[in-house]
Amino acid sequence: MLIRGVALLSGCFLAGQLVGETIGRLIHIDANVGGVGFAMLFLVYAQNWLEKRNKINLEMESGILFWSKMYIPVIVAMAATQNVRVALSSGAIALLAGIIPVILCLVLVPIVAKLSLKGTEEWSI
């Protein structure tokens, strides 16, 4: 049953890639346009469809959950690698567009964390 969950995820991935490539070709772009997003939408839809019909069991669901947790970090890492290559070949503006938001996030996360803790202290009675 674990294999069925992996097979479902693989099928959704292939369908998403096919849709993304097709959209890219239709709009004359030599790239996959949203294939990962379509794949995740297909996976959510397929899982809900199977759950409504009581066709999914615990082992199949664990296969889907395991690979869906692995899927997102792997795809993000692949996309990040491509973006770095493009940024290095595109010049300083592309590098600044990537570096500035990262620095802002690193600065703002501790501030937001402190503000959120401060807000919970006031409400904890």
Characterise the protein shown here.
The longest helix is centred in the middle third of the chain and has 33 residues, at 58-90. The protein is flat and about 50 Å long. By secondary structure, it is mainly α. The chain has 4 helices and no strands. The mean pLDDT is 78. Keywords: Membrane, Transmembrane, Transmembrane helix. InterPro entries: Maln_transptMadL. The chain crosses the membrane at residues 30-50, 62-80, 92-113. It holds the Pfam family MadL.
Provide a concise account of the structure shown.
This protein has about 120 residues and is mostly helical. It has helices at about 1-25, 35-50, 60-90, 90-125.
Q: What is the count of helical runs?
A: 4
Unreliable stretches: none
Q: How does the major sheet shape up?
A: none
Q: State the end-to-end distance.
A: 48 Å
Reconstruct the topology from this structure.
Elements: H1 2-26, H2 35-52, H3 58-90, H4 92-123
Helix pairs in contact: 1-2, 1-3, 3-4
